[in-house]
Amino acid sequence: MHLYGTQKINSNGHLEIGGVDAEELARIYGTPLIVYDIALVRDRARSFLKAFEEEGVSGQVAYASKAFSSIAMFRIVRDEGLSLDVVSGGELYTAIRSGYPAERIHFHGNNKSEEEIRMAFREGVGCIVVDNFHEIGMIEQISEELALPMDVLIRVTPGIEAHTHDFITTGQEDSKFGFDLNNGQADEAFRLLSGISRIRILGLHCHIGSQIFDTAAFNLAAGSLMRKVAAWREEDGYTCPVLNLGGGFGIRYTDEDHPLEPEEYVRAMIRTVKEAAAESDYPVPELWIEPGRSLVGEAGTTLYTAGSEKEVPETRTYLSVDGGMSDNIRPALYGAAYSSAAALRMDEPHTSAYTIAGKCCESGDKLIEQAYLPDVEPGDLIAVFCTGAYGYAMASNYNRMPRPAVVFVEDGDHRAAIRRETYDDLIRLELEAAGIGKEEVR
Length: 442
Prior knowledge:
Number of helices: 12
Number of domains: 2
Oligomer: single chain
Organism: Bhargavaea cecembensis DSE10
Structural class: alpha/beta
Keywords: Amino-acid biosynthesis, Decarboxylase, Lyase, Lysine biosynthesis, Pyridoxal phosphate
Pathway: Amino-acid biosynthesis; L-lysine biosynthesis via DAP pathway; L-lysine from DL-2,6-diaminopimelate: step 1/1
Shape: globular
Largest sheet: 9 strands, mixed
Domain Orn/DAP/Arg decarboxylase 2 N-terminal: 41-296
CATH superfamily of the largest domain: Alanine racemase
Subunit structure: Homodimer.
């Protein structure tokens, strides 16, 4: 059993996170409950920043907020000195409402609307990551109309296929994201953006995939981008201030996963860029990265309450919990694997095999295909680890399931970051749209 961050087994045999007993958290906040170990988030943020400092390279670490967007998390990473990557007007709005400095926000997205681009200009974001030719036209029109400048990065697909799942591979040539680096699209985007008077091209951006466990693909991507900017200097006299090499650094979901320490990815990319710059007598650009999962994934643990059990002779035993694909769709979406434990029986042998199933009305609502636990009784508290990324962020109200509460724990304290949805929350927008008061439907 692998424990993460501040997790430990306390004297009661209970799982403890951030100095707080899981039993206490479940009693106060109910289940399902997503618990974030904030000390681990801070430690990961500082490790990334330290890698740049130790390698002597200027850089920015931007939290890829799609992993988990909330005002409370934004304030944590803001206070740790990170920048922020947003991909929609909603994420940008949340960031601004959280008090995030706009100049530290990078606006991504493969289909930004005109209103989203206007919003980015009005708020004065640090840069827009340009994804396609349609967007270039809108940026030109809006910058002229508002008479406002904007820094941009050109997102490119370098033709690198990381060893990851097809659904989360984004750097290969066949991708909905970015300009192809090898067929002239990136060069055309560079020429168009160079001709817009209020636009400054900061440099290139790429993101080659997610849940990557080695540095080889990152090194190949960094080398490809450096060769391109070296060619642009030779052809157009342009010297690139920034290279953004994205994120995708892997984490340990199960014992079969063997990721590097987060800072090792950064050091490898920095060294590749330094070597490529030396070969071309090119100034080493400022390097940006965008960790999301690797900042918050292992920091999250979801607590569930066990319910019904069903044995299929000679096949499996289903153990149903009070959540499922409505709070964690990743197993159903692309077969993501997790590990688990009986949170209040941690010191007992975990030798009984279960398929942990959710309560949604889908046969595919299975959180873990083969989980080893003690002999579980209804009411036992089940912990599923590493749910801090793309859990709550992708949660839904399927089957009219209220989304769970989110709590932050640190140094023995706990506080609600997001309250649990109620049944009233589920129908609120319908009542407002119809002009119906709650008392009229009881």
